Amino acid sequence: MPPLADFCFFIFIIPNMENQNRMLAAFSNVVRYNMSNPVEVITTNGQLWSISWVVKEEHPHRIVFIGGWQAFYEHYHL
Questions:
Q1: Domain ranges of the chain
Q2: Can you tell me the mean pLDDT for 41-61?
Q3: Which residues pair with 40 in a beta bridge?
Q4: Radius of gyration of the chain measured on its C-alpha atoms
Q5: Which is the most buried residue in 15, 23, 45, 50, by most CB within 10 A?
Q6: Whole-angstrom Cα distance, residue 7 to residue 23?
């Protein structure tokens, strides 16, 4: 498996905010044990965002974004 620094992914944002702050289970299961917390998200314009994450009991196979996600969401009008 390549280092996590080499991973890039894209996600489609849908109108339901509850679903927007969770990563897909398959992706979460592969990376969560080696992923930094917080993660650094670099947008196409080069802006850096720091977003914290947790794995919640009700979604044990999903990474859920918490700290920093709301500001990112609002800044980009997602």
A1: 21-75
A2: 86
A3: 50
A4: 12
A5: 23
A6: 14
At residue 24, φ and ψ (nearest 5 deg) are -60, 140
Q: pLDDT confidence of 22, banded at 50, 70, 90?
A: low
52, 38 Cβ separation under 8 angstroms: yes
User: DSSP H helical segments within the chain, as ranges?
Assistant: 17-20, 25-31, 69-75
Measured between its terminal Cα atoms, the distance across the chain in Å is 32
23 close to 59: Cβ distance less than 8 angstroms: no
DSSP state of 48: E
Mean pLDDT rounded to a whole number for the chain: 75
Report d(CA 43, CA 41) in Å as an integer.
6
CA–CA gap between residue 61 and residue 23 (Å, rounded): 9
Q: Length of the chain, please?
A: 78
pTM, 2 dp: 0.63
pLDDT at 24 over 90: no
